[in-house]
Each structure stands twice: as structure tokens, then as C-alpha cells.
Amino acid sequence: MIKLTVNGTEHSLDVEADTPLLWVVRDYLDLKGSKFGCGAGLCGACTMHLNGNPIRTCITPISSVAGQSITTIEGLGYKDSMSSVQQAWVEHNVPQCGYCQSGQIMSATALLATNAKPSDEDIDSAMSGNICRCGTYPRIKAAIHSVANSNATSNTELFTNIMEAK
Amino acid sequence: MTSLTANTSTAETQVKNSSRRTFLKATAMGSSGLMMTIALPGCATLKNGGMTQVGDTEQWDSNAWLRIDSDNSIHFVLDRVEMGQGTYTGMTTLLAEELEVDPAKVDVSFAGVDSVYRNTIYGLQITGGSTSVASSWQIIREAGAATRIMLIKAAANTWGIKESDCVAENGAVINNAAGDKNKGKQITFGQLAAIAATYSVPSDIPLKNKADFKVIGKYNKRLDALKKSTGTADYGIDTDLPGMKYAVFTRAPRWDSQIRDFDASKIENMPGIEHVFAVNKPSAVGIAIVAKSYWQARKAQKLLTVEWAESELTQVNDASIFAQYKKDLADDSGKNVRSEGDIESALENAAQTITAEFEMPFLAHATLEPQNCTAWAKEDGLEIWAPTQSADMAQVAAAKASRYSLSNIKINTTFIGGGFGRRINQDFVAEAAAIADHIQQPIKLIWSREEDTQRDWYRPSSYHKLSASVDNDGQITGWNHQMAGSGVFDYFVGDAAPAQYPFMPKFMFGMLESAGKLGEGIIAPADGSIFEGAEAIPYDFANINVDYKKSDSGILVGNWRSVGYSHNGFIVETFIEKLAQLPQVKAKKDSYQFRYDLLNKHPRAQAVLEKAAKEANWGSPLPGCTQGISIHKSFGTWVAEIADVEIDRSANAANQIKVKRVVCVVDCGQVVNPDTVVAQMEGGIIFALTAALYGEITIKDGIPQQTNFHDYQLLRMNEAPQIDVHIIESDEKPTGVGEPGVPPLASAVANAITAKTGQFFNKLPLKLDA
After folding, report:
1. I need a labelling partner for B40 at 20 to 30 A (CA). Which of B366, B519, B556, B625 fits?
2. What is the pLDDT at residue B139?
3. B763 and A CB contact within 8 Å
4. What is the DSSP letter of A28?
């Protein structure tokens, strides 16, 4: 049995040790917001937080994260409790097909947790591992800037969970 | 208020709209609500297998478009798929405008298969060709307006006032009758629905004038943004069924190979593996592995060995393909698709003749959601959940690959993680249907990225030969464009033709495919996948000739965002630039003015070009940049783009072209959702820039060589330019938006580089001379 904490809930899982975290979360825990894109860590659609840091879960064997704390898109917020990053995504109409956006939001959230006012270059560097085939990059950038420019205290609140996890 | 609960369960009324030969039909739903359906006379209406109905409590006709329940919930069935292009919002906005509701209050679900949902432009239930708004602009608004008129009548009768004294607003009818005791009161649509359902659908359905629009042209929200920002939108790959197994499918490296033998001895006893078997069906040839989990199936696949039979493609390489195109075109110029004046004499009498040859590569779609399909086979029917752009073609593909007939196959569509034309071909549905049928269980088939890249239906490669005649004054007197390449029509007609005749038994499918192929250009639209955009060259030359020679490479090809325009936008606008750079032309006017003057028969094009030049400060590039200009019409829409490009020789060879800014001006007629138009232009530009800088599938010994995002690169955040989009205000009918942003981009970038270095580009992706 492998133990794992996902979005604050502890799970014991009977799963082969080399199974990527992505498939465990999607198919054993039924959290389908994180997506499969490439299986090689090249596109970022599968991004989750491991102890607050963004990782590519399609190439992360479950055994390597045993006993640790994972946050998925479902752990950030939902409907009336959306995080400020998610709210910015909605306000900027960021998603087109939307398939990459869970991963984009996880990467952006991790960036803003450590860099409250990222420059364009900071955003490029933190986000260039996440591919968007629909080309929503200009809106992603605008949404990240808008979060950075909004109320600083609410940002602190937003990232409390992440920092606690660290 | 007793009339509000009158039993109306048997009432059905119809009205014919003679202009479109369609029927709107209102049906009462027990005592609770109203359902508006649209039926086509003279067509068999398919009823679905009946395993799952849309909606939870009430029986709902499979061809319903709109349902209003007594709790005032409004349900709209979207008959075009949502793959990012914005139909979910745009089509709902059309309905909401005439119905008088807030678009955000409408509950949207995806349509199953029914002839009423067919795209009126194609005769198929297809989402493609940037046609959704254009083809539904009238009919959805009429459905909304007819329903509103009936709801108003119900309210007027309830209050005993005139219909003209009622106002529909925000999901309710308001009493506006001067002096009436109920003045100012309102009744919700939900309360009125059951009464309204007893009325005849009005024969005259006036639509609002543009000046009265409340949401069309103004609504700027995106209705699916919340779901897609919280991980709660369900894509095909997210489908989950009780007892569902996971399947992977091993296909031949060359698509035309059959199975000779396979050895599963190493995997049969691996944990979780339940079935390994060969599948040999139309569009589904390979070895299926079914396991308890996806990872178990994928791991086992590495240990499977398959011996494939001979392929016709083992000698096929890019070089041989282009040699074939050139030879075929030299032997026979093929079909003439445009002829004006006398090109031969223009070229003979020219003071100067300018020529160029172009070679365009195969391109993969690389949808971020890999191909996948979930299928559940039972004794009485097959149910499919698929991210498909054509539900009725999916049904045909499933029928051909299984024991089931069309009437026993139910197709459910889902949110789609990128389409771009890939999901018009239904091989992933055929495979899932065959696998589920074989084991009579629910399975989910997921392709790997490598499989998705190597077994795509690529944008066809093509060869183009252009020549222009120039007289002594530097006037262009003639334009000759000849080209060769595979047509995409042949590669999807097998599923498309039977889908148009759903009443035909399965044994007729082969005949329908043959008839479909023969009917191309006669009963089916001509396959423009190589020549579209070339034949419609808008420039005012006295002599124009465009020829297309079909030359089949044998490589699988399909529709790729903007299809033929994707390469012809580049070729035409790059060759035009070559002419603009002739010294005798350049002495008189710049690249902008040269185009502008030659577009004298297209005022909308001139307006688009003029605005682009103004917004981009044409002639004053960004620091360190040069500018390139391009304009192209596709799917009825004019788009001009001006790129500011910097060459950075210090970067890696692959990263020396830096596109800093793209200014885009679009005229797509009336706009439904302005922000969707902007988003589609932004997305089209980045999609096209990916192709311009990186896009190339190469073929070696019949095998596509690229596998994943390291060798089939997609543009990333750090490479994305600033994009400024401007929409031309228009009263014209709406035209396409999803694709027209793509065609002008590559030439705008190429022309900017030409302005800097003089290098002329006749191939994509763009590669700088050393």
C-alpha cells in the first residue's frame, strides 16, 4: 500500500509502484481535472503541486511521492470558492479548448506563491513548460499580471495552503 | 391562475418555414414545460438507442434544441461541438438574444446524432469549416423568437391583455398594459411554458434588428470558462463507466499494413492484463490490449511484438513524394479551377517573367487531448462517448467496425481538447467500437502522444509552381499557379457518405463510399483542400490561371485548421511580395500600396488592409524589427496581418526568428461575441506561427518521423508575440472566425524577413540562410 495526501485527504492505495501519479489521481482517486498530454513531461497538462512545487505528474512514479502532499486543480477552488488565479482566468476568458488550463493554473499559482510581482520574463520562464495548442498565452500572461496587481493581502491568503504544505 | 397548470400533454403544433424547408415543432412535456424541436421534412429521423437520455427526469426527444421547464430552467442542446472555438457561448447567445434570457442562465448540453443537427452547409453533422455561426445564425434565432412569441401569447391570455402589451425580459414576461390591474407584474417563462406549448408555432417569426440587440455583438463572457478554470469540464478522456477497462492499441508503423502475426506471450500474465487480441476492421487494424488500468495496458504494450505484412509505402519518402507531385503536374496540369483572360499569351508577351516553386510540408494537428474514445457494447446496442467533430460520421465508423447497425449505436459528444480538423476522421471511434464489441464490456481507449503524432491525418504536403508576367511599365499582366498534392476528401468520404444516408443498410456502405468519391465536385462540394485560396486570388490581374493536379502521396491526410488556405495564404502572399520587391514596382509603391491598388474590386479587403497599416504604424517598425504584410480571405472572412520581426543571429539556429508583434484586422461580418473573435484571431496566429517556425512532419520509408513535442514543437509562452486584434464594424452576415486568422500569418513573418535580408522563402517552416 502506498500512502499519499491529496488536497488534504490521506489515501492508501494498492497500485503498482511505477504507476505515474497522474493516472493514480485521475483513475484511482477520480480527480479528472489534471490532464494527460504527452507522457514525457513536455507539455505540462498534468501539472500538480508536490509540497507546493509544480511537478509533471505523467512522469512521476507514485512510489517517489509516497507519504507526501499533493495539490491538484480540484484543491485550488471550485465555483464560489475559486482562487484568485482561477477568477482571473475566468475574467480574462483565458480558456479556449481548456484542456491545458488546469496545468497552466497550477504553474501560475506556484509562480505567484514565490514571486508576487512577476515580470514578463519571470512569467515566460515559469510558464514555458506548459503548452497551449489554442494559443492563449497572451491572456495567461495578462491574467497572471492582474492577480499580481490585485490586492496583496488576498494573494497571501490564496497561497496559505501552498506555503503550509511546504 | 388555474390555466397555468392546464394539462396539455398531447398538444403538438408545427409550422413550416418555406425559406429553409424546416419545421419548428413545439411539444408539451407532461404538465411541466415546453420543448421546441426542429424537424426536417422528408428525412428519416434517427431515434437513438435509448440507453441514456439527455436530461434526467423528463423524456426528451433526441432532436430537441430547447426545453423550458416549470422551474424556469432553460436547456439548450448545442448541435456543434465545443473545441475551443466558442460555439458553447456563441450559439447560446444567439438563442438568448431572441428568447430574452441571460445567456449565462441557459443550461447547455451536447447533441447526440440526429439529421436535424446537420450542418446545413455540409449535409453532415459536422463542426468544421468555420461555419457554426454562419450556418445557424438564422435558425437558432428563429427557434428563440418563436418560443418567445408563444410565451408572450400565454402571458397575454393569462392576464387577458393584448400581446403587444407584454414585454419579454430576462426569462419572464412583464405586464405593461396601461390601467390593467396586473400592470408591472411578471410571470416566468417556466410558469408559462406549459400553456405556450399548446399554441401553434407562429408562421411569421420576425427577428430583431441589429439596433435592438442586447447580447449579440456585445456579450463578452465565455460561458465555459468557469468549468475550464476549475478542472470540471468533462472531455472525452474523462469519461468513466462502471466496470470500465482501459485499452491501448498497437498500430502498424505504416498505416496500410495488415497484421501477419503477433506474440503476446510476454504480457498475458502481467498484472491487470485481461485481453490481448487482433482487430481487423475498416479504420481499425492492430492489436488491442485491455487491462484494469491504463498504465498496466501501456506498460504491457512495450513487450508486445507484431509482425506486419508488406506495405505499399516502404519506398515512400518526402523526396519521392515531391518528385511524384512534380512529375504528375508536368505530365498533366489537371483540373482548371480558375481561368480568366489568356495566360499563355500574357506569359509569351511578357517583358519579364517571374517564377517560383513552393514545397509545403505535412503538418500534424497535435490536439493537446490525445485521440481517445470510450465505448460500451451490450447485447442491444453500442454506446460511444467521443471527442469527435462529427457525431454522425462517428456513428458510421462505429457501425463499420462492430456488429451493430446505425440505429443501435448512440453517440455522446463531450468537450473537446482541441480539434483543428483532426477529429473529422473517426479512426479512434472505429477502434474503440471494435474493441468493446469484441469483449462486450465498457472500455476506454487512449492514444499515446507518440501514436497521436505518428498516426495523424496530416495537412497534405503539396507542390506549387507559380509564374507572373510583367510588362515594361512594371504592371503585372498575368498570374499562373499550378499545384499538385493529395486531396483530403478521399480520406473521409468512407464515413461521410453513409452518414448522409442513415436509412441505408450497412452492406450498402461500400457503394456509398464509391458513389461519394465519384460525386466529388458534382453532388458533394469540390475538394478544395489543395487549391482553395489559390483559385480565389483577389488581385486584379487581366490574365489568371489556376490548375490543380490531384497526386496522391499515399500518406494519410485530413483537414487541418484552415485546410487549403493554410498553404495558399502563404504561397500567394509570398509570391505577391516577390513581385512587390521588383525594382520597377518598388520604385512606384511599397508592399502595402501595391496590394491595396490591386484589391480595387474588393472594398472590404481594402478597408481591412488599410486599418492594419494604420494600427501597425506601417513603415515605422518596432525597434530592431522589420515589418511584413499579408492579407487573405478564407471562410468568407478577410484578415490582414502585419508582423514586426527581429532577427537574432546570436540565438540557436532554430530560434533566430523573433516575432515581436502581430497586428491583425478582421472583417467577419456581424459579430456575435467580440471577445471570441479576438481570442480566435490570437489563437489562429499562434497556431500559424507554430507552423511557420517549426511545423513539419517528415516521411522516411513510409513512416512519419516525429513523435512527441520535443521533435514536433509547439510554440511556447516565451515565443508568443504581442497580438493586437481589431474587428471591422459590419452589418453583413456573419462569416467564419475559427480558422481565418491562420492563413496570412506565415507570409507576414516571411515578408518581414525578406524586407530585412532579401531572402525569399518558398518552403515552410521558415529557415534562415546562413
Report:
1. B519
2. 84
3. no
4. I
Mean pLDDT within B504-531:
79
Fold match between B2-216 and B320-362+460-488+527-757?
yes
Number of H helices, E strands in chain A: 8, 5
Class of domain A77-165 (CATH, top level): mainly alpha
Domain range list for chain A: 2-75, 77-165
CA distance A88 to chain B (A): 9
Contacts of B299 in chain A (CB under 8 A): 18
Residue A137 is nearest to which of B84, B222, B686, comparing CB atoms? B686
Whether A36 and chain B come into contact, CB under 8 Å, resolves to yes
Q: Tell me the CATH architecture of domain B2-216.
A: 2-Layer Sandwich (3.30)
Topology given in CATH for the domain delimited by B320-362+460-488+527-757: Aldehyde Oxidoreductase; domain 4 (3.30.365)
Q: What is the ipTM of this complex?
A: 0.94
Q: Do B417 and A35 touch (CB under 8 A)?
A: yes
Q: Do A130 and B717 touch (CB under 8 A)?
A: yes
Q: Bigger pLDDT: B133 or B696?
A: B696
User: How close does chain B come to A153, measured CA to CA in Å?
Assistant: 22
3-state SS of B308-322 is: ECCCCCCCCCHHHHH
| Architecture per CATH, B242-308+373-454 | 2-Layer Sandwich (3.30)
Cα(B630)–Cα(B499) distance, integer angstroms: 39
Query: What's the rounded mean pLDDT across residues A126-149?
Result: 97
Cα maximum dimension of chain B: 88
Q: B325 in contact with A at a CB cutoff of 8 Å?
A: no
Q: Do you know the residue count of chain A? A: 166
- Please answer yes or no on whether A72 and B231 come within 8 Å at the CB atom: yes
SS3 for B115-175 is HHHCECCCCECECCCCCHHHHHHHHHHHHHHHHHHHHHHHHHHHHCCCHHHEEEECCEEEE
B142-160 pLDDT, tens digit each: 889 999 999 999 999 999 9
Contact assignment for B368 to A100 by CB distance below 8 Å: yes
Residue A32 has which C-alpha cell? Answer: 479528472
Judged by CB atoms closer than 8 Å, whether chains meet at B220 and A93 is answered as yes
Taking alpha carbons only, the member of B499, B284, B249, B245 closest to residue B374 is B245
Locate the chain B residue with the closest alpha carbon to A78.
B230
Q: Which amino acid is at B162?
A: K
Question: Which is more confident, B651 or B743?
Answer: B743
Nearest to B716 among A32, A35, A131 (CB): A131
CA nearest A32: which of A91, A99, A97?
A99
Contact B230 A78 (CB under 8 A): yes
State the Cα–Cα distance between residues B669 and A111, nearest whole angstrom.
Answer: 41
Q: How confident is the model at residue B451 (pLDDT cuts 50, 70, 90)?
A: very high
**Is the pLDDT higher at B314 or at B109?**
B314
- To the nearest whole percent, how much of chain B has pLDDT over 90? 78
CB-based contact, A39 to chain B, within 8 Å: yes
pLDDT score recorded for residue B9? 30
> What pLDDT band is residue B517 in, cutting at 50, 70 and 90?
confident
Name the pairing type of β-strands A69-71 and A2-6: parallel
Phi, psi of B606, deg, nearest 5: -60, -40
CATH no., domain A2-75? 3.10.20.30
Minimal C-alpha gap between B725 and chain A (Å): 12
CA B631/CA B744 separation, integer angstroms:
6
From B296-310, B352-366, B480-494, B604-618, the region with the lowest mean pLDDT: B480-494
Sign of CA dihedral B309, B310, B311, B317: positive
CB within 8 Å: B221 and A93: yes
Between the alpha carbon of residue B213 and those of residues A68, B112, B202, B207, B759, the distances in Å are 54, 30, 21, 10, 50
Q: What is the pLDDT of residues A97-129, one digit of tens each?
A: 999 999 999 999 999 999 999 999 999 999 999
